Amino acid sequence: MLGYVTLGTNDLERAAVFYDAIAKEMGVGRMMEFDSFIAWGEMGGAPGFAATKPFDGKAATSGNGTMVALEAKDRDHVQRIYDAALANGGSDEGAPGPRGEPDPTGVVFYAAYFRDPDGNKFNAFLMDKVS
């Protein structure tokens, strides 16, 4: 089971602004904070996420092919997470919308894609009935 995800940052203050906004949309806040590390989520809750300056002192880089997926409650929640990301230093990687074709029961993958200020890729998604 996934416990949490940690992503590197070269500017913890900038990352904090970005992740505070995303965490707020996800209904959580900061759960741990140190000089070089901040974690968001709820102790004992769903998996959380963290931003950290790399322990080895080298520059943080985003992973090619790496992505963190945030499960949304509904399509409006996908939009709000995406909007919060772009309003707080994130960049667009794909506006909210259905991806692919619905499965035989009419369920479609609905998602928005964005990057944090350090280039780490995210999506906000849900499995939803075609409307």
From TrEMBL:
VOC domain ranges (all copies): 1-127
InterPro entries named in the record: Glyas_Bleomycin-R_OHBP_Dase, Glyas_Fos-R_dOase_dom, VOC_core
The organism's place on the tree of life at top rank: Bacteria
Membrane-spanning residues: none
Gene3D superfamilies tied to this protein: 2,3-Dihydroxybiphenyl 1,2-Dioxygenase, domain 1
Pfam families for the chain: Glyoxalase (PF00903)
PANTHER family: BLL2941 PROTEIN, GLYOXALASE FAMILY PROTEIN (AFU_ORTHOLOGUE AFUA_5G14830)
Protein name, UniProt field: VOC family protein
Species of provenance: Qipengyuania marisflavi
